[in-house]
Design goal:
Blueprint (H helix, E strand, L loop, with lengths): L5 H18 L6 H8 L3 H7 L3 H30 L3 H16 L10 H7 L6 H28 L8 H22 L3 H18 L14
Helix pairs in contact: 1-2, 1-4, 4-5, 4-7, 5-7, 5-9, 7-8, 8-9
């Protein structure tokens, strides 16, 4: 019976992702990945014909997990409120609560790491990132568009721009947290984004507590 190589493939991807997040793609050589994964060069190239193929596989896996994170969080929020604005506020609250569990050594976002060295990746690999970020814009933008209709904002606000703002806050907070070595920055900034939405829309309904929730 042939051996299942999925465990080895996963080990290579895990080792490479850790190295890429820590030092960037350019500085992550195949030799270092092989050493970190504890495999031979032949085994590496059996699973991944090139470093570029490995990079594509890693970001596709990351994007799949990111999409699941988005959908699970929204499903949780939709189960707690029927109001679209409250759903978004709860969703951000869940993100904030999860961020409270981060430590100062959290590596940040793989998407950002790739984009910092975009010239090293092919169009297909970068498209994976674009599609993943567009998914957040579509899903949250649709919720916020409903919120605009139900709760007219106090200032002009484009739903898609507000959805993008969450990505900007989240990614920027990771940069700041890593620079300062203060993991709490991420939770703080997510809290401020939620407060901004609350003030913008003049929300009055109490948001259900999210203590203990995970998604």
């Amino acid at each position: 019976m042939p051996r299942d190589g999925r465990g080895t493939r996963t080990a290579i991807m895990d080792a490479a992702e850790t190295l890429i997040l820590d030092q960037g793609f350019a500085a992550t050589s195949v030799e270092r990945i092989i050493a970190a994964a504890g495999v031979t060069k032949g085994t590496f190239f059996h699973h991944f014909p090139s470093k570029a193929d490995l990079a594509r596989a890693i970001v596709e896996r990351y994007a799949e997990a990111d999409r699941a994170h988005l959908e699970d969080g929204l499903a949780r929020a939709e189960g707690l409120s029927r109001d679209p604005l409250q759903q978004v506020l709860i969703f951000v609250g869940l993100m904030r609560e999860q961020a409270l569990g981060l430590d100062a050594e959290h590596p940040g976002c793989l998407f950002a790491s790739y984009c910092y060295q975009a010239q090293l990746f092919d169009e297909g690999t970068l498209r994976v990132i674009t599609d993943a970020l567009d998914a957040w814009r579509r899903r949250l933008g649709a919720k916020l568009a409903e919120a605009v209709q139900r709760h007219p904002p106090r200032l002009p606000a484009d739903p898609d721009d507000l959805a993008d703002m969450l990505t900007v806050v989240f990614e920027g907070a990771f940069v700041l947290a890593r620079t300062r070595k203060e993991a709490a920055v991420v939770a703080t900034q997510l809290g401020l984004y939620r407060d901004y939405l609350d003030l913008l829309f003049g929300a009055r309904e109490a948001v259900p507590p999210t203590e203990g929730a995970r998604f």
